[in-house]
């Protein structure tokens, strides 16, 4: 894979995931009790043999950069391997990145220095497992100039993605960004084929189209809206079927854009299914992250005689449950749950303390929050709305370091 350079786009604001993104970039949002969202993309790179990686950052990137430093300084630069964080260099006259394509355009000089023949473009804010090597090999066999990873979804869900039409040989004929009435599969009128935001480009084709796009004032400099439709008219563009992936990772066909509070919550809850739709336990495809050295999690009998219990929950290191009850929840590291507290259908980030007798249901509690004894969250929507953000599906979000 020495002829491949990987570019991970990790600079988006992620406003729909507020307040979880009020002080951090979306790829740095914690997930699944111990990970950050970007860990899934980088793990895919690691297991796929992609070890020359540029991570393009921009919005509130300190937390993300710290995580990459602590958890992903694992490659050997003497072997030409790296994960390099690239903040905006202001090489375009002092401007910030103005779109996904614009971010790479302003870093074309890094592509030139890499001497790569192929560029893999990825998003740092999706939850999935995928062997990119299989897609790259398919790109080469097809002599494609661009290959787009895609999967079929319900027609209604397709409205929020770029929708693809292909021939029987997987040549892309149309790409429509977020259509109101998505075209459907010939074999199923209720399903549409959508782009996953995963691309393999021939580097010269990418350079040419980005340089042309940069001269168009009316362009939004976005891959889905501007770049891909132009290439379809002039180049061989192929679709790679994600669920037909023949790579080494177990095929679970799980891919989630966790762009809203409700989709983020649902993806965490997916991990609690009796048979989770995404397999975190494949031994040769472990999800890598940075994890502080906390002691093992434990339950403790409280002074009142209550036993700390966990039911169908994910529990990270350093958690102490002293007489509380946790059901169907994701509990991150260094969380303390005190006597008589109940936590149900909730997500607790690192360093949260739940006071005695608290009741939490359908909540996301961000880091460094101390919840006073006998506080109720998620039981009274009117009272919760006075101080917290509530999602469309009723998930209450307590922001980081909130003071009660």
Give structural notes:
- The protein has 404 residues and is an alpha/beta fold.
- It has 2 domains: 4-285, Spore Coat Polysaccharide Biosynthesis Protein SpsA, Chain A (Alpha-Beta Complex); 298-398, 3 Solenoid (UDP N-Acetylglucosamine Acyltransferase, domain 1), CATH 2.160.10.
- Helix content is 21%, strand content 27%.
- The chain has helices at 38-48, 62-71, 100-105, 108-114, 132-141, 203-214, 223-234, 261-270, 381-385; strands spanning 4-10, 30-31, 35-36, 52-57, 82-86, 118-123, 126-128, 146-154, 162-166, 172-177, 191-202, 237-241, 255-257, 298-300, 309-311, 314-315, 320-322, 325-327, 330-331, 336-337, 342-344, 347-348, 353-354, 359-361, 363-365, 370-371, 376-377, 389-390, 396-398.
- Strands 5-4-1-6-11-8-12 form a 7-stranded mixed sheet.
- The model has no long low-confidence stretch (mean pLDDT 92).
């Amino acid at each position: 894979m020495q002829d491949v350079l990987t570019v991970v786009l990790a600079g988006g604001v992620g406003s729909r995931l507020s307040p979880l993104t009020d002080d951090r970039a979306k790829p740095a949002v914690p997930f699944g009790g111990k990970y950050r969202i970007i860990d899934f993309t980088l793990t895919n790179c690691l297991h796929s043999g992609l070890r020359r990686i540029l991570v393009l950052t921009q919005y509130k990137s300190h937390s993300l950069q710290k995580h990459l430093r602590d958890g992903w300084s694992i490659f050997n630069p003497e072997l030409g391997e790296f994960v390099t964080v690239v903040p905006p260099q202001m090489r375009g006259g002092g401007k910030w990145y103005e779109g996904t394509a614009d971010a790479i355009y302003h870093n074309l000089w890094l592509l030139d220095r890499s001497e790569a023949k192929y560029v893999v473009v990825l998003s740092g804010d999706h939850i999935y497992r995928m062997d990119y090597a299989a897609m790259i090999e398919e790109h080469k066999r097809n002599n494609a100039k661009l290959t787009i990873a895609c999967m079929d979804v319900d027609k209604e869900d397709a409205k929020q993605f770029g929708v693809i039409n292909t021939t029987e040989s997987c040549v892309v004929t149309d790409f429509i960004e977020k259509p109101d009435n998505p075209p459907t599969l010939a074999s199923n009128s209720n399903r549409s084929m959508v782009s996953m935001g995963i691309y393999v480009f021939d580097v010269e084709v990418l350079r040419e189209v980005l340089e042309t796009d940069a001269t168009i004032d009316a362009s939004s400099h976005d891959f889905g809206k501007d770049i891909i439709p132009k290439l379809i008219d002039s180049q061989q563009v192929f679709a790679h079927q994600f669920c037909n992936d023949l790579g080494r990772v177990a095929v679970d066909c799980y891919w989630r854009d966790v762009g809203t509070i409700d989709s983020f919550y649902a993806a965490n809850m997916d991990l609690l299914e009796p048979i989770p739709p995404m397999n975190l336990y494949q031994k040769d495809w472990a999800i890598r992250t940075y994890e502080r050295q906390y002691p093992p999690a434990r339950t403790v009998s409280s002074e009142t005689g209550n036993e700390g219990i966990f039911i169908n929950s994910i529990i990270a290191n350093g958690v102490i449950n002293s007489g509380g009850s946790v059901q169907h929840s994701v509990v991150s590291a260094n969380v303390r749950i005190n006597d008589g507290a109940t936590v149900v259908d909730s997500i607790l980030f690192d360093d949260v303390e739940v006071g005695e007798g608290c009741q939490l249901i359908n909540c996301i509690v961000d880091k460094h929050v101390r919840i006073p004894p006998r506080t109720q969250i998620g039981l009274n929507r009117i009272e919760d709305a006075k101080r917290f953000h509530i999602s469309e599906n009723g998930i209450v979000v307590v922001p980081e370091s909130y003071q009660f």
